[in-house]
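Researcher: I'm comparing several assemblies side by side, and this is the next one on my list. It has 430 residues spread over four chains. Same procedure as the others: predict the full complex and return the structure.
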Amino acid sequence: MSRRIRSDSSLQGIPEATIARLPLYLRALYALADRDIASVSSEELAAAAGVNSAKLRKDLSHLGSYGTRGVGYDVDYLIYQVSRELGLTQDWPVVIVGAGNLGRALANYGGFASRGFRVAALLDSDPLVIGSVIAGHRVRAVDDIECVVADCGVMIGAITVPAVVAQGICDRLVAAGVTSILNFAPVVLDVPGGVDVRKVDLSIELQILAFHAQR
Amino acid sequence: MSRRIRSDSSLQGIPEATIARLPLYLRALYALADRDIASVSSEELAAAAGVNSAKLRKDLSHLGSYGTRGVGYDVDYLIYQVSRELGLTQDWPVVIVGAGNLGRALANYGGFASRGFRVAALLDSDPLVIGSVIAGHRVRAVDDIECVVADCGVMIGAITVPAVVAQGICDRLVAAGVTSILNFAPVVLDVPGGVDVRKVDLSIELQILAFHAQR
DNA sequence: CCGACTTTGTGCAAACGTTCACAAGGGCGT
DNA sequence: ACGCCCTTGTGAACGTTTGCACAAAGTCGG
């Protein structure tokens, strides 16, 4: 139980549920760091992130033993460890396809640039939009997908185009080498194995809310 | 097992995981209806929604027995039943607080109006924005929250304001009578019991993607 | 140096969700 | 009317996630 080649996390996968909460912890940790708080207990951090303290401890234990018993966690050190686990110590160029309202919102989104993400390019198919400047980026033609992905080494793409063309854009992104896709179009994307898709569907969220509101 | 006051669904709650998938099924069903397909098997519908067919059948069984063995499900009938369960047979006025990029995108979002949701009002605190027209709605002052919620009977609110003021807006919405909140601000909202909050955080989704992209 | 106190990290059990596999049950051709 | 075929609905097994409760381990005062 003592000799390991690498950290616990690398040997056996971290549960998906834990991964989904790490960004939440990270955000809470940054808020603490901004207030110059150097150390935090699992109880406090859990409250800030809106979760149970036992869950938080178990989640963090998957990354390793980065706390000090009787004291808590060092904020800066934990920020570094969580960031490293999430792969945020490197820079992630992201290509946004679709410069409509959602694409613009995404390009302008503050939280975007703050955590290692960078808009590599903003693409659209509308000749009236191509060439205009949004959030400091000159909008390029959607036909540039392949060279943008190749030139900038993009692995993450955001799809903010109408539903009917989303699958086509997705196929081109995947063919160009993108392995992770954030899909805002209300369609189920069909992708080959190894490609990761996360969907954000405002309509679905509203419908879930409606269910609860109706009781 | 035969005498019931109401349907199965009302007697014992439908699992949250199932609720979250019903809008997905509904979307697939509408797509089938658009293609004039009258009947569908669990296998086909599951493929269209991107889930396992056993899961789909179990999910639908929570609403009741609306299929026909050996045949499948009647598309229109199932649309009605799922819509009813989600509470989409009624009209839901939604108030959007924050007319920034995200608020505009939301107000312009097509899938918004299509499923029984309606923008009751679009609010902002910026005097330069108040009075302008976005997606057919004249932007009103954020101080009108209380009267908009009261006058229009709003139960659902979307928060697209900066993180620092989100909790304050949330408090006012709740005090005014809103029971369901869609939060786009990157903060954990503190709400009294009985109020339902769903969060959409683009940054969190990207970080999860980064983890998988990094392997 | 020791003992009291605090907080982490984790075994364990319960709750929840998913998937399999098949009996139950309806349609359809004969 | 009957038997075959198809698909639903569901019991049971399995895997994942949560939460409790506590031992392990560190700090700190004396």
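Model: For your comparison table: Confidence is low (pLDDT under 50) at residues 1-10 of chain A.
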